[in-house]
Each structure stands twice: as structure tokens, then as C-alpha cells.
């Protein structure tokens, strides 16, 4: 793209604000993963911190609640106008709307769930068990279960008690208080590994990515979906030159 005879790098678009701390964490990871020596080495991106987008889980659970799709579609339309090279959405539950959003987008929208699932199968072809830590909306919509179909994987969903703990960590601790309860987080991870005998655990909510970033449960088998997306974005921009 040229402006005034000068070659200008294309930006990519980030639809965020779901929540804001998670979006801030995503941008931080992208900056950390980018090899830089000066200001101009960082990536060009446009962030829509659209914090007023209605809650995704609330709508998926009850369609009488306000629909987030028109808000997300408006962001895609704006990014089309701005001429971005691709789009990412920093909310796993919002990927429920990805098929409709991709139809409206003039560029690819990278799928965070698909990237997380690929990371689980990078070292083996054996049948594996993958625990899914995510919001009620993501789980009830089957976002990760669908992504795992046909990949010789058994998705593992927590029982009601453990799922309530997941929701408490996401909504009451991180979204509400910007606080990560490390004991609760580690307890949930160990539940999947020890009681459910999972080979991998996918952190399928960007608030859980915040928990992993701040407390770092020490296991390569904990797959942070947002981190996988950030790695992919950095590599894509690097390959595009």
C-alpha cells in the first residue's frame, strides 16, 4: 500500500474488549514475541477495545439477551474499510459467531480454537484426552468439541462443580476484580490432569490466558489458546515480510 508515494505496511485488526484485561494481555504477548531493536520493528495493528459488546455467554445461554453479533459485525465492517490484512478476535466464546463474521469480512479471521487444537496434536498421533477450560457459553456451544472432531481426541468437559469454579475464576475473580486466585486456578488444572487423566488442557477463555500469564502453571501440556493465536499472528506477519 502506498500513501504519498511512500510504501506503508498493512496493519492487522484486533477485535477486543471481551474483556479488556485479556485484550491488553494479548497485545503484550504479541509485543513480547516480536523480535525488535527499534520502534519500527514492532507490528502494525489496530485494536478495537469494544468493551460494550454484550456478554457472549449470556446470549448463547438465552437468546432473549442482547445479541453480540451486530456489534462484532460492525467492527468487522470498520476493519474492512481500514484495509487490514487479517483479523483476530480475542474472545473464545465470540468464535460462536465466526461463520457469520467471516462471511462479512474481506480478509481472513484467524480461528483461536483451531490453533489451540493443532497445538495439542503436534507431537503424537495417538488417541488423547483434552480437557476444555472455558465459559459455559463456549462449552454449551461446542466450540472446542467441534474443533476436535475427527482428530482422534476425546474432549473432556468438567463436572458441574468444577465448571462453577471455572466460571467463578473467570467472572468473579478476573473480570470483576482483576485478580487471579492461583490456588483455584492450579486446583482446576490438577483436576483435569489427575482426576480426568487428560493429556492436554486447553485454556479456552482469554481470562484464563491472563491467569496462566500471571501465575504460569508449569506444564507444556497446558495449551493457552490466546498464546497460540499470538504466536501464529507474529509468524504470519514475519512470513509476509
From TrEMBL:
Is Isomerase a UniProt keyword of this protein?
yes
Q: What's its top-level EC category?
A: isomerase
GO terms (molecular function) for this protein are: aspartate racemase activity
Q: Which InterPro entries match?
A: Asp/Glu/hydantoin_racemase, Asp/Glu_race, Asp/Glu_racemase_AS_1, Asp_race
Q: What is its EC number?
A: 5.1.1.13
* Keywords in alphabetical order: Isomerase
Q: PANTHER family this protein is in?
A: ASPARTATE-GLUTAMATE RACEMASE FAMILY, GLUTAMATE RACEMASE
- Which protein family is named in the record? Belongs to the aspartate/glutamate racemases family.
Q: What is this protein called?
A: Aspartate racemase
**Source organism phylogeny:** Bacteria, Bacillati, Bacillota, Bacilli, Lactobacillales
Amino acid at each position: 500500500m502506498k500513501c504519498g508515494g511512500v510504501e506503508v505496511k498493512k496493519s492487522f485488526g484486533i477485535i477486543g474488549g471481551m474483556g479488556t484485561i485479556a485484550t491488553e494481555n494479548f497485545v503484550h504477548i504479541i509485543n513480547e514475541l516480536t523480535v525488535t531493536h527499534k520502534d519500527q520493528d514492532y507490528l502494525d495493528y489496530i485494536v478495537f477495545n469494544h468493551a460494550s459488546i454484550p456478554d457472549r455467554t449470556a446470549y448463547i445461554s438465552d437468546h432473549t439477551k442482547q445479541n453480540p453479533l451486530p456489534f462484532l459485525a460492525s467492527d468487522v465492517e470498520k476493519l474492512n474499510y481500514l484495509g487490514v490484512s487479517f483479523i483476530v478476535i480475542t474472545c473464545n466464546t465470540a468464535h460462536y459467531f465466526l461463520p457469520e463474521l467471516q462471511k462479512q469480512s474481506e480478509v481472513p479471521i484467524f480461528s483461536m480454537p483451531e490453533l489451540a487444537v493443532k497445538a495439542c496434536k503436534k507431537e503424537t498421533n495417538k488417541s488423547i484426552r483434552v480437557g476444555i477450560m472455558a465459559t459455559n457459553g463456549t462449552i454449551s456451544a461446542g466450540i472446542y468439541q467441534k474443533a476436535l472432531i475427527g482428530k482422534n481426541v476425546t474432549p473432556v468437559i468438567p463436572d458441574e462443580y468444577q465448571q462453577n469454579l471455572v466460571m467463578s475464576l473467570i467472572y468473579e475473580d478476573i473480570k470483576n476484580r482483576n485478580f487471579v486466585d492461583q490456588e483455584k486456578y492450579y486446583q482446576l488444572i490438577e483436576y483435569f490432569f489427575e482426576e480426568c487423566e487428560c493429556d492436554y488442557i486447553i485454556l479456552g477463555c482469554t481470562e484464563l490466558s491472563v491467569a496462566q500469564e500471571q501465575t504460569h502453571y508449569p506444564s507444556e501440556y497446558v495449551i493457552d489458546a490466546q498464546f497460540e493465536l499470538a504466536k501464529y499472528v507474529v509468524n504470519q506477519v514475519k512470513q509476509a515480510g
